[in-house]
UniProtKB/TrEMBL annotation:
It is found in: Membrane. Keywords: ANK repeat, Membrane, Metal-binding, Phosphoprotein, Repeat, Transmembrane, Transmembrane helix. The gene is Trpv5. Its main location: membrane. It comes from Chloroceryle aenea. One of its GO terms (biological process) is calcium ion import across plasma membrane. The chain crosses the membrane at residues 134-158, 192-210, 231-251, 257-275, 296-318, 359-381. This is TRPV5 protein. PANTHER family: TRANSIENT RECEPTOR POTENTIAL CATION CHANNEL SUBFAMILY V MEMBER 6 (PTHR10582:SF25), TRANSIENT RECEPTOR POTENTIAL ION CHANNEL PROTEIN (PTHR10582). It holds the Pfam family Ion_trans. It is a multi-pass membrane protein.
Length: 509
């Protein structure tokens, strides 16, 4: 019951009341340390009160709980050194990482916790010491891997075509070699090494991605933009296309160019995932994802309706015409592709002025140009501009969340020997087996000076008050006779000595 009340207090809108009640309940907790503590009992979702405060974006409760966990080492002037308990914060030994919970939640307030102490210092330490070097090395390794795969595709085994053409529009001069003919020369053996590297890389990608899908869930793993959800779909599809190409090569099945071309496009598009390691390029990957899976997906439904309607009309108009004079609409698939190009203004309106064109072609093309080019394309540009404006206001916040997600991903996938635990063991300071992060806080000199003035003025007021009480106790008989004079003396003393100091402090503030 006490643990349930603690979880309810984290969700309370009245933050001050929740903090006081939280402390009151914990005061009656017998097991304040260890696994039996109320603060360490998770709810049905596996969240302790501390993790729930982070997921809900309750910054007041989070800071209150962190103040209870910190230990001050020493203070010298404006410089203070504090040890923060990393229990439930550090993702090194957590199955359900606190950092991963923050970046995967849909509440924007939760991402503000990434800018608070000690989360900000912990993420900065992990990223600068291990995350950034490993991520840059991984990006370089992936680019070299894609270069190897591209060269294998460019020099794939082909031979001249020997059969006769079946149509005047048939333009094929090379065909794919059979498996027995593909690996006979020294150049073929070099290509075989590159193909083996490509297949091994695809298998490694699937081995690394599938456990995370099973652990997190497909909807959450692929649906979170900050976690790189669309890029996970791209890289898994790429690996599957590589395996399909391998099967078609081994069985000598024609048509391997289809999965191979898809793999090339997806593999090189996945290079954009590594832009999140750079502050200048990271937010732009978020913009591209939101535009593709937000604005463009909605716009494609409208575009598909318009293209289907006008492509059908163009095909019907030129169905009775000679395709040699105007071949852009000679069959229905070509009509769809030509209409799509016209929609995006990639080509100009097809016309052959040596022959008479149908009158309805001019009427339909006029309506198509008004609806598609002037109306719908400008609508798409306006939608993307609005998305760019919204994301630009959150670019720094989104980049920090990307860094946290990337750091947690690398920490989970790399061996423990390559990623030691961050922080200081509490045994060095007699604080048990918990791990702590040492943070040095430097107060602004002007603010520190004003705080010293305030304490000095308060101490001076207390001294004046104590002196007045001593005089009153010594001269009790005189007090009844000269009470107004004594009171006026104490007031005048406080006004002359400290009132001036308070006025100076107010003006400086």
């Amino acid at each position: 019951l006490g643990n349930t009340v603690l979880h309810i207090l984290v969700l309370q809108p009245n933050k001050t009341f929740a903090c006081h009640m939280y402390s009151l309940i914990l005061a009656y907790d017998r097991n304040k340390e260890g696994p039996g503590s109320l603060e360490l009992i998770p709810n049905n979702e596996g969240l302790t009160p501390f993790k729930l405060a982070g997921v809900e974006g309750n910054t007041v409760m989070f800071q209150y709980l962190m103040q209870k966990r910190k230990h001050s080492l020493w203070s010298f002037g404006p410089l203070t050194t504090v040890l923060y308990d990393l229990t439930e914060i550090d993702s090194w030994a957590e199955d359900q990482s606190f950092l991963e919970l923050i970046v995967s939640t849909k509440k924007r307030e939760a991402r503000q916790i990434l800018d608070l102490t000690p989360v900000k210092e912990l993420v900065s330490l992990k990223w600068n010491m291990y995350g950034r070097p490993y991520f840059c090395f991984l990006a370089l390794f992936y680019i070299l891997y894609m270069v190897c795969f591209t060269m294998c595709c460019v020099y794939r085994p082909l031979k001249p075509r020997t059969g006769n053409k079946t149509s005047i529009r048939d333009n094929t001069i090379y065909v794919q070699k059979m498996l027995q003919e593909s690996y006979m020369t020294y150049e073929d053996e070099l290509r075989l090494v590159g193909e083996l590297i490509t297949v091994i890389g695809a298998v490694v990608i699937l081995i690394l991605e599938i456990p995370d899908i099973l652990r997190v869930g497909a909807a959450k793993y692929f649906g979170q933009t900050i976690l790189g959800g669309p890029f996970h779909i791209i890289v898994i599809t790429y690996a599957c296309m590589i395996l399909v190409t391998m099967v078609m090569r081994l069985t000598s099945t024609s048509g391997e160019v289809v999965p191979m071309s898809f793999a090339l496009v997806l593999g090189w598009c996945n290079v954009m995932y590594f832009a999140r390691g750079f502050q200048m390029l990271g937010p732009f990957t978020i913009m591209i994802q939101k535009m593709i899976f937000g604005d463009l997906m909605r716009f494609c439904w409208l575009m598909a309706v318009v293209i289907l309607g006008f492509a059908s009309a163009f095909y019907i108009i030129f169905q009775t015409e000679n395709p040699e004079n105007l071949g852009q609409f000679y069959n229905y698939p070509m009509s769809l592709f030509t209409t799509f190009e016209l929609f995006l203004t990639i080509i100009d309106g097809p016309a052959n002025y040596d022959v008479d064109l149908p009158f309805m072609y001019s009427v339909v093309y006029f309506a198509f140009a008004i609806i598609a080019t002037l109306l719908m394309l400008n609508l798409l540009i306006a939608m993307m501009g609005d998305t760019h404006w919204r994301v630009a206001h959150e670019r720094d916040e989104l980049w920090r969340a990307q860094v946290v997600a990337t750091t947690v991903m690398l920490e989970r996938k790399l061996p423990r020997c390559l990623w030691p635990r961050s922080g200081i063991c509490g045994r060095e300071y007699g604080l048990g087996d918990r791990w702590y992060l040492r943070v040095e806080d430097r107060v602004d000199p002007n603010k520190h000076k004003m705080m010293r003035y305030t304490e000095a003025f308060k101490a001076q007021d207390r001294d004046n008050y104590d002196k007045g009480l001593e005089k009153l106790e010594i001269n009790r008989d005189v007090l009844y006779k000269k009470e107004p004079s004594v009171l006026s003396l104490s007031r005048s003393t406080s006004r002359t000595s400290s009132h001036r100091g308070w006025e100076i402090l107010r003006r400086n503030t």
